[in-house]
Amino acid sequence: MSENAKLDVVGIGNAIVDIVATADDALLEEQGIIKGAMNLIDQDRADALYDVMGPAIERSGGSAGNTMAGIASLGGKGGYFGKVRDDQFGQIFRHDIRAEGVEFNTAAATDGPSTARCLIFVTPDAERSMNTYLGACVNLTVADIDEEMIKSAKVTYMEGYLWDPEEAKKAFIHASKTAHAAGRKVSLTLSDSFCVDRHRESFLNLVKNYVDILFANEEEAMALFQVDNFDAVLQEVRACCSVAAITRGEKGSVICAGDEVHVVDAIPVEQVVDTTGAGDLYAAGFLYGYTNGYSLYDSGRIGSIAAAEVISHFGARPETSLAKLVEEKLK
Predict the structure, then answer these.
(1) Nearest partner of 84 among 59, 61, 55, 109, judged by Cα
(2) How does the average pLDDT of the chain come out, rounded?
(3) Class assignment of domain 7-13+62-112+138-329?
(4) Which family, according to UniProt (predicted)?
(5) Does residue 1 carry a pLDDT above 90?
(6) Among candidates 46, 81, 85, 41, which has minimal Cα distance to 65?
(7) How far is CA 268 from CA 73, 126, 309, 320, in A?
């Protein structure tokens, strides 16, 4: 892996504050919240829902933010780029992600939309009803990318959810070119099959021209390559990028690198409580292994260990030291 790197991975993504509170079905019905769904909302709706929430846990979130927190829990060194506003939630995001052990220096916006937030209502049946206001996070630009931080990281990891705004696309390309010019690697997670459907051609161009390490689940990969079976995915992805890690839920994952194909079993979990963050933490484990000298197969196993931990409880951040779990289970 690259010489003289200060960081293992730097992530680029939507900086969102997760606000999690318990609620009963009556509150959801009263507020017109679609149970179990993820609803995009505006700021007025976000403010109104916040006012009716009970006591809540407020912490930094977002897909790439979860991945970076996972890398920190594994003992890795990570950095993060994401846009917040200079408001209360922006301060919460900045403090929390730094407290996780992640370097975060992106300047806060001084005007425009407020910090993004996801208001999550958890009902007694364990359903999570998510209401997301994207706010400031979609306004990341090239100017927010610190080239020196990119150059200092072995891998730059980009979140597909942020591929919607044009300025963010430019930021991704700029970060990718900066990383490659410094001899570093570039990684992308496709994030969501709906993202792939919206941006298939530009995603394909990004993967073919800039991405060294691709993360996707089986459905996202089939959507990207417009194929209807997993074998076809493997053939397509091997021609596109150096390394691909395709997750398959309870079937585990498959890692491709040229002629190498590694099948990695999922780690059994006594009870799956919440699958939120499973892909984010798999990526964290894999990238930690990849940047710290583990084989591709063992990197995949670390990914599986991290994913198994996060689906065993509510929330998308590890509650147990992943470094200790890896020490116990990677034998």
Answers:
(1) 109
(2) 92
(3) alpha beta
(4) Belongs to the carbohydrate kinase PfkB family.
(5) no
(6) 81
(7) 21, 20, 10, 16
